[in-house]
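Exercise 3.2. Students should predict the tertiary structure of the chain below and write it as structure tokens, then compare their answer with the key that follows.

Predict this chain's 3D structure.
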Amino acid sequence: MNKQNILMGIIMASGLLFSCEQAEMEHTLVASNAGKEVSFHIGISSLTRTATTGNKTVFVANDELGLFAVNRNGLNVIEGQGNLKYVYHDNQWDAEKAITFPIDGSSVNFYSYYPYSAFVTTTTFEHQVAKDQSVGNAYDQSDLLLASHTTSTADDTSITLTFAHKLALVEVILPSDKVGVSAEMKAKRTVTVDLLKQTATLKDAEAEEWIIMKKVSGTVFRAVVPAQTLGAGHLIRIKLDSGGYYHYSIASGVALAANEINTFSMPDKDEIRNF
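Answer key:
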């Protein structure tokens, strides 16, 4: 899978790229089992992940999401319809097991999340971004998208699920005359997800850790992290092809906004140290 608002003259916000404009991709979730199955249409309202083509987020082959059917009255998960996995391929989503409307006609809410995890057993769970997002699909799998539909009736022929990004995308841009080999940023990595509330709450008691960023080009690096206020001090370090290190520090906390690209544009005159 392919996937700024801040700061003192150095960091520029670019929430534009995260416009709430509906992504053009809309696909049908098809469950193959017999019975009165529920058909879904899925879209993405913004852009961090899953594969980022230009400034759009698109789902790609073998992407997986989890889906819960919840009784609207008691908000309890319907038996056998919790964390069902849907896999995307051939331009559609296929379910391991069909979700069906209750025979008694009772009202149902639907809640979904990406990326799928077999370890999720309830509608509240933890999500942690990868410490090294430069390898494999770790960057893509670090992202978190949530969706819900709470107005369905048994007469509906299809249910629309529109996913929204719940984490922050951090982008670091070097001056054009410098080439980076690798980059790291310091941030907290874990959120508690509540599907019913559609929230991802930072585990604030955690310590900040160094996160290896994904290299987009020689001058651009990205990482997905929880929305948070970064502590003052050493924030970003970049290894240059010249053998030096580019260090960036902040004097006071900087807020990273969810569902936005938070861009840090490095100034021409910052600290470059050779080790």
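Discussion points: Residues 175 and 268 are 6 Å apart (CA to CA). Helices lie at 138-142.
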